[in-house]
């Protein structure tokens, strides 16, 4: 299945690493940073991955805006995310958008990611070493399971 993963990964590239791991494991997967995706024709893809680091408990604003404006209704989508803490609530906002836009949600994969945002920078960050090789392999296994 032809798949495009659009990602927003602004601090340490944690979420980009998940997208790259999936693309490396499947030649039918392409990836694109959200700021470079404005001219993509997403109707050409069978599935769309929406990937983001978590910012204040939600997917990043640039990816949310892009998804709302550019992903066609009725598309099959899946979510990828990295965060300092893995919580089920991180996808609540994007799931609500999926419902409003009529997308079919295939699943989600999230893991921890290195975080030096705000005061965490003063202590050298949290979740050092994440995503790990096992977490990257987990992203590829998640995608294969769809």
Structural description of this entry:
The protein has 146 residues and is α/β, with parallel strands linked by helices. 31% of the residues lie in helices and 27% in strands. It contains four helices and six strands, in the order E-H-E-E-E-H-E-H-E-H. Strands 1, 2, 3, 4, 5 and 6 form a six-stranded mixed beta sheet that branches. Helix 1 crosses helix 4 (133-145). It is globular and about 35 Å long.
Task: List strands and helices in order, with pairings.
Elements (H helix, E strand, L loop, with lengths): L2 E6 L5 H12 L3 E5 L13 E9 L2 E2 L1 H10 L5 E8 L8 H10 L2 E9 L20 H13 L1
Parallel strand pairs: 1-2, 1-3, 3-5, 5-6
Antiparallel strand pairs: 3-4
N→C terminal distance: 10 Å
**In one word, what is the shape?**
globular
Helix fraction, binned, reads: 25-40%
- Backbone CA Rg: 14 Å
Number of strands: 6
Structural class estimated from helices and strands: alpha/beta
Q: Any low-confidence stretches, pLDDT <50, length ≥5?
A: 118-126
List keywords for this structure.
alpha/beta, globular, 27% strand, 4 helices, six-stranded mixed beta sheet, 146 residues
Summarize the structure.
With 146 residues, the protein is an alpha/beta fold. It has helices at residues 14-25, 61-70, 92-101, 133-145; strands at residues 3-8, 29-33, 47-55, 58-59, 76-83, 104-112.
């Amino acid at each position: 299945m032809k798949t495009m993963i659009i990602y927003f990964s602004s601090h340490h590239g944690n979420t980009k690493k998940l997208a790259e791991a999936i693309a490396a494991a499947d030649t039918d997967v392409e990836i694109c940073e959200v700021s470079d995706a404005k001219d993509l024709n997403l109707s050409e893809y069978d599935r769309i991955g929406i990937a983001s680091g978590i910012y204040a408990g939600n997917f990043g604003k640039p990816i949310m805006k892009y998804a709302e404006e550019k992903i066609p209704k009725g598309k099959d989508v899946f979510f990828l995310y990295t965060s300092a803490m893995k919580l089920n609530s991180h996808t609540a906002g994007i799931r609500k958008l999926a419902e409003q836009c009529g997308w079919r949600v295939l699943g989600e994969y999230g893991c921890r990611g290195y975080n030096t945002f705000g005061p965490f920078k003063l202590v050298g960050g949290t979740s050092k070493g994440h995503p790990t090789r096992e977490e990257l392999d987990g992203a590829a296994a998640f995608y294969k399971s769809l």
